[in-house]
Structure formats: structure tokens, C-alpha cells
Design a protein that fits this description.
There is one protein chain. The chain has helices spanning about 5-35, 40-65, 75-120. It has about 150 residues and is mainly α. The longest helix is centred in the C-terminal third of the chain and has 42 residues, at about 75-120. It is rod-shaped.
Length: about 150
């Protein structure tokens, strides 16, 4: 059997296994983060998590298959390991960049949600809070429209 074919088989086995492992790890550990980003909506967090995992698989497995072809002939074990190290290394870098991109986008969404929660006024607009006894504030008065 040609060593180039052996390199292809090993490359596919390693990169597909790495992609599945990273996707499962991100899915399992990212669920809590997504629930926080989505304000505790567990069903929505699960749905978004599943969609992210499917997209992750599609992009990474698509890249793995496109990057499979090699123009170099593999003549010996040394060249086999060199070809595999370059290919697997590039796939690992792509997996890392994909992961960092997902985390960056989700953290931006989380930060925006936290800023929106902080900007919610404690008293509805147009309502007022009368001073309580000894200069302390009392509970907010009900709004006139309630």
C-alpha cells in the first residue's frame, strides 16, 4: 500500500476524532455559558448549543476534507510523520480559531445583555419615590397607571 494513502487514512482518523472530541467538550461545557448569555432560558440555550455544534462540525469537517489532498509523495516513515504533523497542526489551529471566535461572539452578547440589565431603571419612568422616615427611601409608590 502506498504511504500517501496511509497518511490520508491516519489524517482522517486523527482529525475527525479531534473534531468530535472538541465539539463534545464545547457542547458540554458551553451549555452553562449559553444559559447565562440567554438569561436562563434553558430550552433556547440547548437549541443554540445544538446549532453551534452542527455548524462547528460542518465547518471543521469540511475543512478537513478540503485539506486532505497533498501534492507531496510520501516515500518513507519520516515523510509520513512530517506530512501528518503539518496537516494535523493546521486543523488544530483552525479548531482553536473557531473556538476563540465562538467564545468572543458569545462574550460580546453576554456583555451586551449585562449592560442592558444595568440600564433598567429601578422605578418606572414617570414614577417617583417619596422620601421615607428619617431621610431613608421608602418602597416605590405604585405607578398611576396601575
Amino acid at each position: 500500500m502506498d504511504l500517501t494513502v496511509v497518511a490520508y487514512v491516519i489524517y482522517l482518523l486523527v482529525t475527525v476524532a479531534l473534531t468530535v472530541w472538541v465539539a463534545r467538550t464545547l457542547s458540554r461545557n458551553g451549555r452553562v455559558f449559553l444559559a447565562d448569555v440567554l438569561h436562563g432560558n434553558e430550552k433556547l440555550a440547548d437549541a443554540v448549543n445544538h446549532l453551534l455544534v452542527v455548524g462547528f462540525y460542518l465547518v471543521n469537517l469540511g475543512f478537513v476534507t478540503l485539506y486532505l489532498k497533498s501534492s507531496d509523495q510520501v516515500a518513507n516513515a519520516r515523510e509520513l510523520f512530517e506530512a501528518l504533523s503539518v496537516k494535523v497542526g493546521v486543523v488544530l489551529l483552525v479548531l482553536g480559531v473557531m473556538h476563540l471566535g465562538n467564545v468572543w461572539v458569545l462574550s460580546r452578547i453576554r456583555r451586551r445583555g449585562a449592560l442592558e440589565r444595568e440600564q433598567t431603571p429601578p422605578v418606572p419612568p414617570g414614577a417617583w419615590t417619596p422620601p421615607g422616615p428619617q431621610g431613608r427611601w421608602a418602597a416605590p409608590a405604585p405607578a398611576p397607571w396601575q
